[in-house]
Amino acid sequence: MRRDSFRFATVCALLCGLALASVARDAPAGPEEAPERGAAAKGESDSADASAEPRAIELRGRLVCLAEEMRTRFDVRVPPVHDHMLGLRVSGDLAPNELRYYSLLRTDFSKALFEDPRYRKVELVLSGRVFPRT
User: Which of 5, 7, 80, 83 has the CA that lies 20 to 30 A from 56?
Assistant: First the structure.
């Protein structure tokens, strides 16, 4: 049982990494992406990140449980009983056989997506915000 919990935590960490990697590919390249070293530079980059605005995004895809998706695609062991981590699987304008996953936060606006199973049966167009450096 303890090993399954550890594997599930590993899957969660992997999913977070995938979400961060997919968003990082969309981020504009610029000088702010190469952090400078030193205490003064670190203070400047922290204040720049805090003032950066999230950008609006519109995605077309299907709702999936990210843990189950990682089990299906990468043969990751997931406990049979687990909390569903809902995400959007996007495949539209990408290369063949390439998928991108976006994790969804549970808020008042997204509550219905988590509770109504009918949303998992159809392709959705979701609009939202992607936060800087996430």
Answer: 83
